[in-house]
Amino acid sequence: MKRLNTLVSAVLLGLCAASEAQAYSGKVYADTNGNGRHDKGEKVLGNVMVSDGLNVTKTLSDGTYSLPGHARERFLFVSMPSGYKATRYYHPIEKGVEHYDFALQPYEAHVKKDGAHSFVHISDTEISSAVGQEDWVNDLRNYAWNEQAAFIVHTGDICYEKGLKAHKPMMNDGNMDLPVYYCIGNHDLVNGKYGEELFEKIYGPVYYSFNVGKMHYIVTPMWGGDYRPGYTKEDVYRWLKNDLAQIPKGTPVVFFNHDYWTTGDRHIFSAGSDKTIDLDAHNLKAWIYGHWHINYITRHGKALAICTSTPARGGIDHATSAFRTLHVDKQGNLKSELRYTYIDRHLEIASVQNGQAPVRADGELNVSVNAYATVATADKVLFSCWVGQKEILSDKAMTQTTDFNWRGKAKLPEKYRGRTVTLKATAYFHNGEVAVQEKYFTFASDSLPAGTSTDWTNLAGNARHVGISKDTVALPFALAWSTNIGSNIYMSSPIVYKNKVYAASVDENESGKAAIVAMNAADGTVVWKYATRASVKNTIAGTQGLIFAQDVYGYLYALDAESGKLAWEKKLDVAYIPSLNDGIVASGERVFAGSGKGLCALDARTGTLLWQNTGWAQREGTTATLSLSADEKVLIGGVQWGAMYANDADNGQLLWGKSENGIRNRASSPAMFEGLMYFLSLKSLFVLSPSTGEILFEKELPYSVDVTSTPLVTDEEIIFGTAENGLVALDRHNWTEKWKFRTGKALIYTAPYVNGEAAQIECSPVLSGDMVLVGASDGALYGINRHDGSLMWSHKVGAPIMTTMAVSGNMFFAADFAGNIYGFKGK
Predict the structure, then answer these.
(1) How many CB atoms lie under 10 A from the CB of residue 262?
(2) 120 SS3 class
């Protein structure tokens, strides 16, 4: 996806099907046997909207219609009525042909009597062939059938000539068993007489409408792209005005487009000063789009703007591979449910591992299970316990805390203390499938003391992101506690500050669940919880007795670390789209936040603005976290697909920018070690001077490192995560590969354009003694020997881990995507 800096002006290129407009007529009927002919007994359909791309009319009671045609006509098409689908809802206008009938097939649209229904949104699949797409397409088909979706809509970037030709055969009304609607994206405007020529040959009109339940859905085209379109804004305006005039007043309306047209609170369609339509006055409920490869919902006035990433692979901005279900109620209000692809009947007992489980002194067992399936929701999860052949706890119901996690607790009978207990968990999915897992543990209350000492206040522990712990945790490890904070955790790594653990969550469905949470480090008890306006997707930080976090809307929060009360907040001067995914950094009396012209330094205690960047602007979102040089004189930031930038940390002056050699694609946050900065980008490890930006060394690698992982730099090694090859260590003296540890297949893909058997690590490794602690997207935590890469310890949690672990005292803390925080203790 290439962002469009300006809207491309459309030109008139071979638009007329005939030199003069002519009148057209035909009828619309229910083709119940699907043979494409109007047979005896098949009813005609009245009150169906039909258009020639400008004029819009409705069929009479006998199913007939007539349209005058116009000079720029290409198609006749129907606005599909609710409960019907068609092999083709349109006819290309042929020279000399004036009569066009429309054969519509009734289908089970799963619309309730009050009009409520659901549909599936996908976007930016960007394929070049149908080969390799089978898994996510089958997932989508099965989910839509299991959950009774009314239709699927694809909001564009299919992509280029090969993709346009391959996509329709693999995903259409016939093989998906429900209507599939397509929008045109910027990469779907390809070489031809005009940009949309190939799209029209395969998919039909680039603007049209259809109806489901009480809703009116409208598809509109991208204004420009790789090649100039033949349509103009005025073309769409004139048709849209006529289309809206035909629907009853107050009908809820939803728009689909590849991009979003506004960031304000009003939705005004404009083709010029005297050609405007107030969409809000037409009961606009939502604008649904793609293009940015992110999962993001904003509210503009009374309408939602909903963006969904790609279901096929990790998003460009490291968004989760996903599609989105929109549930529509009887008033036309939408409720989102993001669904992750490629996960088949997955279940993992996260609270039991290595023969140990967290059991309180009174025998209370806390059970945490992560369960998920792409094709169906989990309806219930039960657990039971056995000692030998005797069932001591039977079918205890668990409570769902997030889309992945379920929790329950029960008291184990004291007489079984010291015995081996088998814990069995069973997940029941909505499609009738079942997943079962058993794990074993010894019924005992661990006597190891748990405590923290040094603070771990930024990504990898400090503002320089040098992930070498001052404390050493020693084997054996025991899970002291796990706490779910009520929503997913993306790349917001836990921090430790004044004997508490802090974490922040995301809310990809705009349901009010995003929050910053403080927990007691010793036992995981929630001390306070502060609801944020929107998702906190990246690094939080602590200094001056305050906890700092920024949400995707651009609000920076400063919370009292002890009480959770808001000390101050600031709306950063950042773009509304894309979302603010960057991580912040704090040290001493300063906190640095924002991006582009909204990047700024503030007094940590008061929120007073110290400086604001003027040297570079935002572009696509980035998952990198701001970094400070060792002397705290240089601040490193940047934008995806733009450049890495260095600002003077004292006054904000731009020092340098660097985009060459693939640095413009950087997602990795630099580690500042011995006066140099180390980071990853595309397929290289870089070493730069923080003060000048000079590339001192580039190590090209035979695999992708397009991940957010910050390299762990020691005297002997450089250790980092990769997009597909797990964890890698280079010898720091000769830059050769020292060892490689391959993790399992990712549960959810986030690295750009990655899927398949990828052993993906997005988080940063940290060092405690001689053990490298790291999490992976396969849903496991690992302890790896720094010298030879051998496995020393692991704990499967069953949900992807995109966060970096925190070490303090004899404890370390981890967070998974399911919203769980884990507190482990060592000797």
Answers:
(1) 17
(2) strand
What is the DSSP code (8-state) at residue 155?
A: -
Coil, strand, or helix at residue 212? strand
Reported as a single tens digit per residue, the pLDDT across 616-651 is: 999 888 899 999 999 999 999 999 889 999 999 999
C-alpha distances in Å from residue 738, one per residue of 582, 720, 723: 32, 12, 18
For tokens 């809206």, the residue is 244
Nearest to 155 by CA among 118, 199, 121, 201: 121
How many other CB atoms sit within 10 Å of the CB of residue 185?
29
CA distance 158 to 47: 33
DSSP 760-779: ---S--EEETTEEEEE-TTS
End-to-end CA distance of the chain: 50
How many angstroms separate the CA atoms of 699 and 348, rounded? 38
Cβ–Cβ < 8 Å for 682, 705: yes
237, 277 Cβ separation under 8 angstroms = yes
At 435 the three-state DSSP class reads strand
| Residue 675 region by backbone torsions, left for phi larger than 0, else alpha for psi between -120 and 50, else beta | left
CA-wise closest residue to 308 among 299, 43, 317: 317
In single-letter form, the type of residue at position 72 comes to: R
Q: Which residues contact 83 (CB under 8 A, 6 or more apart)?
A: 106, 107, 109, 111
Integer Rg of the chain from CA: 28
Q: Are strands 253-256 and 284-289 parallel, antiparallel or unpaired?
A: parallel
How far apart are the C-alpha atoms of 666 and 677, rounded to whole Å? 13
pLDDT recorded at residue 21: 57
Helix (H) or strand (E) holding 190: none
C-alpha triplet 258, 263, 266: angle, nearest 5°: 100
- Chain mean pLDDT for the chain: 95
Q: Where are the alpha helices (DSSP H) in 73-172?
A: 134-146, 160-170
Alpha-carbon 679 to chain mean position: 24
What is the pTM assigned to this prediction?
A: 0.95
Asked if 550 and 536 touch (Cβ cutoff 8 Å), the reply is: yes
CA distance 234 to 220: 12
The torsion region of residue 257 among left (phi > 0), alpha (psi -120 to 50) and beta comes to: beta
Give CA–CA dist 623/302, Å, rounded.
Answer: 30
For residue 62, give both structure tokens. Answer: 């006998």
Strand ranges across the sheet with 566-571: 541-543, 546-550, 555-560, 566-571
pLDDT 10s digits, 759-811: 999 999 999 999 999 999 999 999 999 999 999 999 999 999 999 999 999 99
**What is the C-alpha separation between 324 and 334, in angstroms, rounded?**
12
Per DSSP, 89 falls in state S
Token pair listed for 533: 């306006």
**Coil vs helix vs strand at 781:** strand
Return the pLDDT at 372: 98
Which residues, at least 6 apart from 782, have a Cβ–Cβ distance to it below 8 Å?
Answer: 727, 741, 743, 772, 773, 774, 775, 776, 791, 793, 794
Please tell me the distance from the alpha carbon of residue 735 to that of residue 48, in angstroms, as a whole number: 69
pLDDT in tens, 283-340: 999 999 999 999 999 999 999 999 999 999 998 889 999 999 999 999 999 999 999 9
Cis ω for the linkage preceding 358 (within 30 of 0): no
pLDDT at 40: 94
Domains of the chain: 109-340 (3.60.21.10), 346-442 (2.60.40.3550), 459-825 (2.130.10.10)
The per-residue b/e assignment along 246-260, b for 16 or more CB within 10 angstroms, e otherwise, is: bbeeeebbbbbbbbb
